[in-house]
TrEMBL record:
<dbReference type="GO" id="GO:0006508">
    <property type="term" value="P:proteolysis"/>
</dbReference>
<dbReference type="GO" id="GO:0004181">
    <property type="term" value="F:metallocarboxypeptidase activity"/>
</dbReference>
<feature type="binding site">
    <location>
        <position position="263"/>
    </location>
    <ligand>
        <name>Zn(2+)</name>
    </ligand>
</feature>
<comment type="similarity">
    <text>Belongs to the peptidase M32 family.</text>
</comment>
<feature type="active site" description="Proton donor/acceptor">
    <location>
        <position position="264"/>
    </location>
</feature>
<keyword id="KW-0378">Hydrolase</keyword>
<protein>
    <recommendedName>
        <fullName>Metal-dependent carboxypeptidase</fullName>
        <ecNumber>3.4.17.19</ecNumber>
    </recommendedName>
</protein>
<feature type="binding site">
    <location>
        <position position="293"/>
    </location>
    <ligand>
        <name>Zn(2+)</name>
    </ligand>
</feature>
<keyword id="KW-0479">Metal-binding</keyword>
<keyword id="KW-0862">Zinc</keyword>
<comment type="function">
    <text>Broad specificity carboxypetidase that releases amino acids sequentially from the C-terminus, including neutral, aromatic, polar and basic residues.</text>
</comment>
<keyword id="KW-0121">Carboxypeptidase</keyword>
<dbReference type="Pfam" id="PF02074">
    <property type="entry name" value="Peptidase_M32"/>
</dbReference>
<feature type="binding site">
    <location>
        <position position="267"/>
    </location>
    <ligand>
        <name>Zn(2+)</name>
    </ligand>
</feature>
<keyword id="KW-0645">Protease</keyword>
<dbReference type="GO" id="GO:0046872">
    <property type="term" value="F:metal ion binding"/>
</dbReference>
<keyword id="KW-0482">Metalloprotease</keyword>
Length: 497
């Protein structure tokens, strides 16, 4: 057995453990009874320790060195060795007992967050979130010492390999300077729009689910390798070739759940389109979370909030929900789906205000990881930044700092990838439309094959063959450029009115 064969076999077994963890995590978030939280925390902690032990095996360093010297490896194998080295370097920085402690703290904190969020009770979450934060600081510090990075950049690197806060600071400063004035301009233009009648419910959950499933099939989701369920916080998870998504429903308004489904379907299409020939290897994984978020936001924001899609979908919506009258016409639905307002909830935010929600979280988590702000001050700091960036102050913590599961679940360093993803989505969709003139006409007739085919070839099927900047440059002709995103916003919210 060659060194590369040994590596690929070893990491294939590690992937099997990861798949098991993925299904257990999905079950924890969707169906597990509350009374099982302690047992599940122990089980998942053990599996995470076993997975950690596998990817820190003492033999891996020698295998990597020998494989890197193997001139017979093809491009995919070389990239796989590169990705294995990346994983191994990071994981060997963190001791197993810290992995286990973090896993247990996260499992308990997640379950506590659900009740604390429902009760708008940050104080109930505080001791558990404090423990998660303490352990995340330790993990970030350990990884940072190995990589020569700050604790925050080391955590960011887990989601955005090669990403650095200095670059994000510059990109976000550009957006923070652009958005307030642009938001005022959009709201002024929007105020001159026709006042549309409301969509009157109720909209039964069963009907919403059936319509969401129909739309998932239209855009290309493979139900032989996934399913749709309900969770407190919508997500895409599961395992290789078992890609599961969730949403949440409001019987007074079907529009949010539908776009939530389209968003998570974008993630799922990426997962279902990853290269099967190397599935289970690090090189088969999605390139980064900014690229992953680009795929969900491309599907939801770029494609499914377009005039083309809503002209196609309007009669299907009327049929699904028994709608009639002017409010159900395509132009009225487009105005509804491009409506901009200052709001409290990130996942319900529009394209224009969403980046501000992310910038807020990015600033706060950087300060918390750096221990520049006590966690007890989070609600007040959150509310102050919401007023500064979005122009509203949450009335309680349920609509404020308790709304997201990311920090209770250990996702520190994740938030900036959402807005990086929005910028990436605009750039990729622009390139796809330029490459294939049938993409927009296809969407207008409910045919997503031209778009998905292009994405399969240029993004999904590339896995982690290329680094993020290289992948984006190959697909679009340039590295990430915020000007494309800003031009998209101006075109949709100012020029298309």
């Amino acid at each position: 057995m060659t060194a590369y064969s040994a590596l690929s076999a070893h990491f294939g077994r590690a992937a099997a453990l990861s798949n098991a963890l993925g299904i257990l995590q999905w079950d924890s978030d969707t169906m597990m009874p509350k009374g099982a939280v302690g047992t599940r925390a122990e089980s998942m902690a053990l599996l995470r320790v076993l997975a950690h032990e596998m990817v820190t095996d003492a033999r891996i360093g020698d295998w990597i060195a020998d494989a890197e010297a193997d001139t017979a490896l093809d491009a995919w194998a070389k990239a796989n060795v590169r990705e294995i080295r990346r994983v191994w370097t990071v994981e060997t920085a963190v001791p197993a007992d810290l992995v286990e402690a973090s896993s247990k703290a996260i499992s308990i904190c997640e379950m506590t967050w659900r009740q604390a969020r429902a009760d708008a009770d940050f104080k109930a979450l505080l001791p558990y979130l404090s423990e998660v934060l303490r352990l995340q600081r330790e993990i970030g510090t350990a990884k940072g010492e190995k990589l020569g990075l700050s604790a925050y950049d080391a955590l960011l690197n887990d989601y955005e390999p090669g990403g650095r806060s200095a670059r994000i600071d510059a990109l976000f400063a550009d957006l923070a300077a652009f958005l307030p004035g642009f938001l005022d301009e959009v709201l002024a233009v929007q105020g001159r729009r026709p006042q549309d009648a409301p969509l009157v419910g109720p909209f039964p959950v069963e009907a919403q689910r059936a319509f969401g499933v129909k739309m998932m099939g239209i855009v290309g989701y493979d139900f032989e390798r996934g399913r749709l369920d309900v969770s407190t916080h919508p997500f895409c998870g599961g395992a290789d070739n078992d890609v599961r998504i969730t949403t949440r429903y409001n019987t007074d308004d079907f529009t949010h759940a539908l776009m939530g489904v389209m968003h998570e379907t974008g993630h799922a299409l990426y997962e279902q389109g990853r290269p099967q020939a190397v599935l289970g290897q690090p090189v088969s994984q999605a390139r980064s979370m900014s690229v992953h978020e680009s795929q969900s936001l491309l599907m939801e924001m770029q494609a499914c909030r377009s005039r083309e899609f809503l002209r196609f979908a309007a009669p299907l919506m009327r049929e699904a929900f028994g709608g009639e009258g002017p409010a159900w016409e395509a132009d009225a639905l487009w105005r509804r789906y491009t409506h901009v307002e200052r709001g409290f909830i990130r996942v319900d935010a529009d394209e224009v205000t969403y980046p501000a929600h992310v910038i807020l979280r990015y600033r706060l988590e950087k300060a918390l990881i750096a221990d520049e702000m006590p966690l007890s001050e989070l609600p007040a700091a959150w509310n102050a930044q919401m007023q500064e960036l979005v122009g509203v102050t949450p009335p309680d913590d349920r609509l404020g700092c308790l709304q997201d599961v990311h920090w209770p679940s250990g996702g520190w360093g994740y938030f900036p990838t959402y807005t990086l993803g929005a910028m990436t989505a605009a750039q990729i969709f622009d390139a796809a439309k330029r490459a294939d003139a049938d993409i927009l006409p296809g969407i207008a007739r409910g045919d997503f094959k031209p778009l998905v085919t292009w994405l399969r070839a240029n993004i999904h099927g590339q896995g982690s063959l290329y680094e993020t900047d290289d992948l984006l440059t190959r697909a679009t002709g340039r590295p990430l450029d915020a000007s494309v995103f800003k031009a998209h916003l101006r075109r949709r919210y100012i020029e298309e009115i």
